[in-house]
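Hey team,

Filing this mostly as a record. A colleague (T.K.) asked me to run one chain through the structure pipeline before their review meeting, and I want the input and output archived in the tracker in case anyone asks later how it was produced. No errors, nothing strange. Just documentation.

Input sequence:
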Amino acid sequence: MSAVDYFKQAPPISRTIAASVFTLSILAYLDVIPFYYVLFIKETFIQFPPQIWRLVTAFLITGPKFGIIFDTYFLYTYGSKLEKASPKFSQPGDFLTYILFVCTVIVGLNVAFTGAYLFTSALVLAFAYTSCQDDRGMKATFYIMQIPAQYMPFAMLLMILIMDSPQQALIAATGLVAAHLHDFLTRLWPEFGGGTNLLPTPAFIKRLFQTRRTTVSHKAYGTSIAQPESSGSGSSSGVLPESWKARGSGHRLGGS
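Output structure:
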């Protein structure tokens, strides 16, 4: 299997995020794209026209050097696992709704407490936290140690604190808060608080992921194309109008 085939078979949202993160980070660190135009800067949103693309690009720039490889790897690994196999995201559009929510919370927390310009590390920790919650009771490998899977994101946060700085650890921690808040509103509160899911996937997002499937059958006498039938109450089966179906059995013309 070629690299292109492997990429095409990867989960669409995760592969798009990973490819965007890797490409944009390379371009930024090579100064092909000036850093100023990809950072989150509050003042650029109140000017005209507002530079709203910064809400996206601030999540797509990794750390320098090996950060480009590791951050891209973790985003793809944990993201594809959530997109393909997590029971939390079983319905169309659930994973995209999750991403939009955690990114919104991450931005809000950083605006309020850290003043950060880039949020990719927070998104990595959010993906890791949510993914590892599905693996409770299992072991995960952290370097050469085996630790409970649910503690993996906290071990990653500790490494950021040791190898980078307290400020970067605080930024990354906002991803844990955002992911836990999503887990509380969608799982913990409905299951243990007696409430309902407070973050349902909006209908317009579901429609983005729903496709009409056409079945094509090749037969000896030609090709049959079947479209999915409408499930509405107003649909009818057969070729006769509904008003004709209630007229009784009828009689043959010319009969006695």
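Quick notes for T.K.: The beta strands are 139-142, 145-148, 215-219, 222-226. The chain has one domain: 3-209.
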